[in-house]
Design the sequence.
């Protein structure tokens, strides 16, 4: 029976690699299509990967804990001929030999070679080997000047060639001071970094190093929402089977405000700002494994009840480790309900590559001046962190004001 | 500063030199009452008279030969060849005689003449109105060959060419005549011959070019700049003598070189520039020197589709730069 190869699928559009945390099947197991095959962790989610074929698992190509680029092979299966025919024939092992990503880049370069008589750059009959062993005059000169062993330099050029810039970067790297290692004392305890922890760390660093952030906050009077919710929460729960929370109102308000402030629902690229048509709100959820950010799709098509149901569904999936690929990709804006943690003001870190994140803070009763009198009102701060490359203060203010106005305009006597 | 087209800058350059120096005169086909086929001498015959703006028969050899004789006798003629495609009858006068006069007379006679001609394609000119002729003249010691790309350079270089005491072949890209606009100072200035110009500074790749191609290369460099590759564009401006200093300084900085010209590749200007780099900056090279040039066919095709295929454009330059950046 033919052997076919299983690749790590593309999960999430801005994700390029994932950690294969755990194999759920062993060599020799017969696995049905869609049965969970492995647990994989990306910087957005941890999930079970369903098996794409019916067959017998014959080999695991990746050890648990390994970071794997998406599209790379991870396992091999023995399958029936019909099963093979229904899968991509190019995935057959015999056709692929040893996967060589650099080799395939070679082809790309040849294809985009200049027309006219410029011609592609070639490096002899076996460009891969030749490029690794042959150094350009510039590289040799630099290596000699700095007494450098070129075998310690990683090449980023065509076919892994070591470029002049690679050598220069290597020299600069070794020149700059190394970070001071923090040696733990014997009484200290070390918490090992889980895959999720490492992914969160990478994503936070990417966001804070690539995005010039600014933030602003406004106070929202949510007394009407609190009154409305207190009055109809039991009835709502009976009717819809989920709790009605202020977060559902906040998400509705955000969805409305994003429609009138489209720049806030966008992504920065060097070719232009990409305005996202869909309103898919990522919701920060604390799980036992760490922070997870599932996505609520098409929020603009949902009413408050629909949003409340979607929140409940996503939160329980996140807590029970059941988030699927579709639950974590496509987010265009993030809402972070820090109020649940008792926070009254805070600056979120933007969920890269989105343009902004909104914190909804704790609702507290406060004396508020209304006209000439003082009243006790339920107040909530909302804090927006935004990518200042895309959004200026005026636009951010307009968006936050729109959220505030929507929330404050709720009729406390509203009946569904 | 005034914004002008290349052809306006050429006209002003000649006009200013004719006003400044009585020994400067122009001769060529239809340059008088007709004002020249591209109107480079429009109104000249009215201002300077028929003695200094001379309509000639359709006989390029005699245009060059008369200019050569006048130059040997103290005049500063500007000989216009209507299209560079018709320059071949002048080769004996220019390559065979003008280039050698100073050497052959032990410096007793010099030839301060300019041979002006519009060249290059992209104007649906077909076989007889699109040729590039710089490589033929640039091979000859004793000549200077100039190929401006902008109005500023065209005027400044033309004035220097007219004042130069040796024969200068001044090749204007007719496609740039009305396509390219740029600022030209109102006050008097010249641009020295033999000095290349860094049209766009950059660090990762050097693109060396001249003439019309300068504009495609700048456009490509800007596109590639958005992709994170910093491209330096050098406009040679003068093909002979070449400015080795500017070329080598840039190559030492970037280590990667693309040479672009409209003219065909084999034994062209790119080959010479490439050899200079290999001889003097070998230790700095981080990639093979790449030439992007016209295909090895005898002439610019007439069919618009084939003409577009023949010509180097921004897309082709961009592809070549990306290719080199990846190496």
Sequence:
């Amino acid at each position: 029976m033919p052997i076919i190869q299983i690749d790590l699928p593309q999960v999430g559009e801005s994700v390029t690699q994932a950690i294969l945390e755990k194999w759920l099947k062993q060599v020799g197991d017969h696995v049905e299509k869609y049965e969970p095959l492995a647990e994989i962790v990306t910087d957005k989610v941890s999930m079970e990967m369903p098996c794409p074929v019916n067959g017998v698992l014959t080999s695991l190509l990746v050890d648990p804990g390994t970071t794997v680029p998406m599209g790379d092979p991870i396992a091999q299966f023995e399958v029936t001929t019909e099963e093979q025919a229904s899968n991509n024939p190019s995935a057959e092992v015999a056709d692929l030999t040893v996967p060589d990503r650099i080799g395939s880049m070679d082809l790309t370069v040849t294809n985009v070679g200049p027309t006219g008589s410029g011609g592609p750059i070639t490096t002899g009959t076996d460009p891969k080997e030749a490029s690794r062993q042959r150094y350009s005059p510039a590289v040799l000169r630099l290596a000699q000047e700095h007494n450098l062993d070129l075998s310690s330099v990683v090449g980023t050029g065509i076919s892994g060639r070591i470029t002049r810039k690679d050598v220069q970067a290597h020299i600069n790297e070794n020149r700059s001071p190394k970070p001071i290692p923090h040696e733990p004392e014997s009484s200290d305890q070390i918490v090992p970094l889980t895959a999720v922890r490492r992914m969160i760390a990478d994503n936070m660093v990417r966001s804070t190093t690539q995005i010039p952030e600014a933030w602003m906050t406004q106070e929202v009077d949510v007394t009407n929402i609190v009154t409305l919710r207190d009055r109809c929460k039991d009835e709502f729960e009976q009717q819809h089977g989920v709790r009605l929370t202020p977060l559902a109102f906040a998400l509705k308000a955000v969805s409305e405000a994003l429609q009138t402030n489209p720049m806030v629902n966008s992504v920065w690229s060097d070719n232009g700002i990409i305005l996202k048509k869909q309103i898919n709100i990522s919701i920060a959820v604390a799980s036992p494994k760490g922070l997870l950010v599932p996505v609520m799709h098409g929020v603009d098509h949902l009413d408050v009840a629909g949003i409340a149901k979607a929140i409940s569904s996503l939160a329980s999936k996140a807590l029970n480790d059941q988030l699927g690929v579709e639950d974590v990709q496509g987010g265009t804006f993030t809402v972070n309900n820090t109020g649940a943690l008792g926070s009254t003001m805070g600056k979120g870190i933007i969920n890269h590559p989105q343009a902004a994140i909104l914190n909804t803070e704790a609702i507290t009763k406060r004396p508020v001046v209304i006209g000439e009198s003082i009243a006790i009102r339920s107040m909530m701060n909302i804090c927006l962190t935004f990518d200042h490359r895309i959004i200026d203060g005026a636009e951010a203010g307009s968006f936050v004001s729109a959220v505030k106005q929507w929330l404050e305009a709720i009729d406390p006597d509203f009946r569904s | 500063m005034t914004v002008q087209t290349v052809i306006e800058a050429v006209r002003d350059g000649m006009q200013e030199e004719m006003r400044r120096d009585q020994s400067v005169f122009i001769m060529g086909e239809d340059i008088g009452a007709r004002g020249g086929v591209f109107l480079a001498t429009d109104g000249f015959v009215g201002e300077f008279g028929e003695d200094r703006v001379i309509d000639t028969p359709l006989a390029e050899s005699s245009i060059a030969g008369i200019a050569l004789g006048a130059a040997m006798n103290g005049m500063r003629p500007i000989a216009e060849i209507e299209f560079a495609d018709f320059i071949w009858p002048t080769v004996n006068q220019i390559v065979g005689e003008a280039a050698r006069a100073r050497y052959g007379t032990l410096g007793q006679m010099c030839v301060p003449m300019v041979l002006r001609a519009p060249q290059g394609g992209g104007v649906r000119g077909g076989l007889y109105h699109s040729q590039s002729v710089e490589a033929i003249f640039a091979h000859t010691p004793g000549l200077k060959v100039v190929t401006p790309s902008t109005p500023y350079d065209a005027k400044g270089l033309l004035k220097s060419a007219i004042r130069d005491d040796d024969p200068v072949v001044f090749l204007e890209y007719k496609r740039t005549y009305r396509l390219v606009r740029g600022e030209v100072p109102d006050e008097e200035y010249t641009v020295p011959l033999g000095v290349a110009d860094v049209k766009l500074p950059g660090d990762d790749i050097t693109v060396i070019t001249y003439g019309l191609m300068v504009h495609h290369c700048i456009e490509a460099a800007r596109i590639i700049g958005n992709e994170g590759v910093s491209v330096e564009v050098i406009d040679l401006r003068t093909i002979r003598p070449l400015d080795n200093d500017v070329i080598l300084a840039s190559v030492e900085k970037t280590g990667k070189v693309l040479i672009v010209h409209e003219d065909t590749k084999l034994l062209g200007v790119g080959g010479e520039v490439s050899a200079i780099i290999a001889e003097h900056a070998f230790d700095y090279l981080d990639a093979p020197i790449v030439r992007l040039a016209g295909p090895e066919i005898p002439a610019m095709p007439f069919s618009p589709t084939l003409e577009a295929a023949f010509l180097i454009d921004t897309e082709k330059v961009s592809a070549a730069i990306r290719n080199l950046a990846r190496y």
